[in-house]
Amino acid sequence: PSASPDSVAGHRSARLCQQPRGGSPVAARAASSLPRPAKYVAIDCEMVGTGPRGKLSELARCTVVNYEGDVVYDKYVRPELPIVDYRTRWSGVTKRHMKSAIPFRAAQAEILKILKDKIVVGHAIHNDFQALKYFHPKDRTRDTSRIPLLNQKAGIPVKANASLKSLAKHLLHKKIQVGCKGHSSVEDAQTTMELYRLVEVEWEEELASSLPPRSPSPVADSAQYMDDQYWPADLNTDDL
Questions:
Q1: Which residues, in sequence order, are CB contacts of 169 under 8 Å at separation 6+?
Q2: d(C-alpha 227, C-alpha 219), whole Å
Q3: Strand partners, 36
Q4: CA 119 to chain centre
Q5: pLDDT tens digit string along 2-56?
Q6: Which residues contact 74 (CB under 8 A, 6 or more apart)?
Q7: For a designed S-S bond to 26, which of 77, 170, 194, 209 qualifies (C-beta 3.0 to 4.6 A apart)?
Q8: Where are the domains of the chain?
Q9: DSSP-assigned letter for residue 225
Q10: The CATH fold of domain 37-209
Q11: What is the rounded CA–CA span in Å between residue 204 and residue 67?
């Protein structure tokens, strides 16, 4: 049985700080580098079809939630090209939603302002960034579709591309993306953050272990500064 996301979050710092003295340097690095919860957001986007035969995917709704799962952004977005296929069965977007939608460029500016300097969590998040026409720094991106830890906990082959729906069922014991009215980007974003929090500590430790070791800054003995090599070149002359 999986642990509660809240219990994991509550012990996120404690688990890293309870290392014995002289313990793993990896754990110590992870503890020192673990971002504060305010630095985390999860995102989910819904797309509609535009272009020839509706084959192009454009943003039609975007939701961003914080570390606790509270919605900080949720708006319908009007694509730059005319909508050919609303893909309602999956997107949940209908024609009436476009009446209150904001232009893509306006939405993009608002969303990127929220994502700036954040650790962004998502499931198959490259699709969301593609819809936003944006690239987030890799070291600040957490894709729950690419975490072997989640697959292991869910009893799914490590290399399998587990769906958000499947992971939610096995690890959170809840059903999402049911019915014929389409997905809810709010539900999906919240679920993604819950999944991340389940393995947050272990995952961040793994990421920290993959970083190259920091070499200590050279500290010269103060007595060495009396040597000629540490004096400016224009003072190292025989004429002085």
A1: 175
A2: 15
A3: none
A4: 5
A5: 444 444 444 454 444 444 444 444 444 444 455 678 899 999 999 999 999 999 9
A6: 61, 62, 63, 64, 185, 186
A7: 209
A8: 37-209
A9: G
A10: Nucleotidyltransferase; domain 5 (3.30.420)
A11: 15
